[in-house]
Amino acid sequence: MPRPRIIKSHQYFDPRFPRIIYVVRDPRDVLLSGYYFQRKRRLIDDHYPFEKYAARFMAGDFNPYAAWGDNVASWLATRYNQPGFLLLRYEDMLSNTAQELAKVAVFLGIDPDPERIATAVRRSDVSSMRKLEESQALLWSSTRETRQDIRFVRTAKAGGWRTEVPESAILQLEAQWGHLMTFLGYELHSSPSSDGFAPPDSSTRRCLSRSKSAISILGSAGNGKQAAGIR
Fold first, then answer.
1. Inter-axis angle of helices 167-183 and 27-40, to 10 degrees?
2. What is the model's pLDDT at position 54?
């Protein structure tokens, strides 16, 4: 493939990619999305206890690219505020799709023409993606051998964790990754002021990247972070 090229991945930090568009999502919604996705993949059944799944998700049992916090920390500790690194939040992409896509265009050196951006947004909306899934699900490697009664393109919304994730799982997740969540602008259900959560300083982020867990290949459900590496 000739350069420049864009490679979509869930990869944890890899120094071979000098330019990165990194998309992160609220891990509470990642947890919920993954629960449906692992059922779709038949890795757990419909009656699998959510709390048990949540513990495995946080331990990184379902994905070869590390648990959510380890993957995110590996990129923030090494590339945050560095040239060639664009950080996007899934929630901002939902609420201000055209604006966030324009950031991507500028990052890639593409003219963010409003009409062109609007066309891309329209072709990528949830109804268009579901039509693609309906017609091509049996062609995609990620869906062709999975349950067809559970959608791959599910709600495409933010905040579903508020009504579907047990509070015990929310509190456990926030206790483990609260600092990262606060740093990324996610409000904690567990009251950050009382629990003492605060954004990590640069030395903390460096420690996160050096930690063994940040580079170990563990795994979790669909981990809600994607890196597009430009080489």
1. 130
2. 96
